[in-house]
Design brief:
The structure holds 2 protein chains of 2 kinds. By secondary structure, chain A is mostly helical. Chain A contains 4 helices and 2 strands; from the N terminus they run ααββαα. Chain B has one domain. The chains are: A mainly alpha, B alpha+beta. Chains A and B meet through helix 1, strand 1, strand 2 and helix 4 of A and helix 1, strand 3, helix 6 and strand 8 of B.
């Protein structure tokens, strides 16, 4: 149930309350529009996350298979020796973008490794299985970065949707109804005062006539 | 009865804050596609002094849709205006290149009216799926009326 706001029953207060009500209604429109956009983005991100997760699982599964074949072909110790030499630094650019007032992280693999893959292991000593495994693991890396971005975006969008929903509910069920009730109460009070004034004037008129 | 106290003040601040948030991420100035492609970390500065970065993959995709002269003229991010009508959104079309891009991505003819291309929400979802970082939402005064 909406509550009355404690105000002095004056015309100035009534004007102030009407202004507040207009502001609250405008904000409600904006917040609702923002909520619908955030929900749309959230759903899209959720769909993308599911797809990215599926891709990641698929790529890791095929990469593990390829690695087991490669290690079976070369032997674990020999393969490890070759792979230690091929360790490189990964360069990821982290930045942000804005979706309807929410700062979303953005990750992208950058640097020379992305453009031109360099194989640092000995090509004459290794088989094509190692090349295949390297390619598959590179794909895993790409999917991991993609999923990290999407999951964090999903979390942030979810939190913002919750916050915006709370504001929408507060406006819809608390602020606007209480402002409306108070405005109605003040209007009724002023009408009552007018009626009292009229009745008093009539009574004075009757007394003067006697 | 609710008192005209700190609670009321808090609500007022909350409302003002909400108005500030919605358009805080708008770019201070837009950059052309060709200049963004030349940058190492393509980005624009926002009005709240934060940075909105673009994904190179998206920029390259946009570059593949238009010719070199249009790349110089196309300003990014493309602004999507949200109006009073909740079912629709409008893409601000200043140079006419946006029209070409939208029609190619959505695979439909796009005709700007008063410098705006009106699209529906399902189309907006499709567009945002392809152009995540190169488009941005703008909440205009139309909503407030």
């Amino acid at each position: 149930m909406s509550q009355l706001i404690k105000v002095r029953p004056t015309k100035i207060e009534l004007v102030k309350l009407k202004r507040k009500l207009t502001l609250a209604q405008r904000v409600q429109k904006i917040v609702k529009d923002r909520l619908s956009i955030l929900t749309m983005e959230f759903l899209q991100t959720a769909r993308d996350t599911i797809e990215a997760k599926k891709n990641l699982v698929d790529s890791f599964s095929s990469a593990y298979k390829a690695l087991s074949i490669a290690s079976g072909y070369h032997g674990y110790i020999a393969l490890e020796k070759e792979l230690i030499a091929s360790e490189t630094d990964l360069r990821i650019t982290a930045s942000s973008r804005n979706i309807a007032g929410v700062r979303i992280p953005s990750f992208e693999i950058t640097g020379k490794e992305k453009e031109k893959p360099i194989r640092r292991y000995n090509l004459s000593d290794t088989s094509s299985w190692v090349d295949h495994t390297t390619q598959l693991y590179k794909r895993c890396l790409k999917h991991t970065v993609e999923l990290a971005e999407l999951q964090r975006s999903l979390e942030l969008l979810g939190m913002e949707i919750n916050r915006t929903k709370r504001i929408t509910n507060a406006l819809e069920h608390m602020i606007i109804p209480s402002l409306e009730v108070t405005i109605n109460y003040l209007n009724m009070k002023f009408e009552e005062r007018d009626r009292e004034e009229k009745a008093r004037l009539k009574r004075v008129k009757v007394l003067l006539a006697q | 009865m609710i008192g005209d106290s700190s609670y009321d003040r808090m609500l007022q601040e909350c409302l003002k804050g909400e108005l500030r948030i919605v358009n805080a991420g708008l770019p201070q100035n837009r950059k052309s596609l060709s200049s963004l492609l030349g940058e190492e970390y393509p980005h624009v500065k926002c009005s709240d002094s934060s940075v909105h970065s673009f994904k190179r993959k998206e920029l390259e995709y946009l570059a593949s849709l238009i010719n070199a002269n249009e790349q110089v003229a196309l300003l990014l991010p493309i602004l999507i205006e949200l109006g009073a009508n909740k079912a629709e959104a409008a893409i601000i079309c200043q140079t006419g290149i946006e029209e070409e891009i939208i029609s190619k991505i959505l695979n439909m003819p796009a005709q700007p009216q008063n410098g705006r291309i009106t699209i529906y929400k399902p189309q907006l979802t499709l567009l945002r799926r392809v152009l995540k970082t190169t488009t941005q939402y703008i909440f205009t005064q139309k909503i407030l009326k």
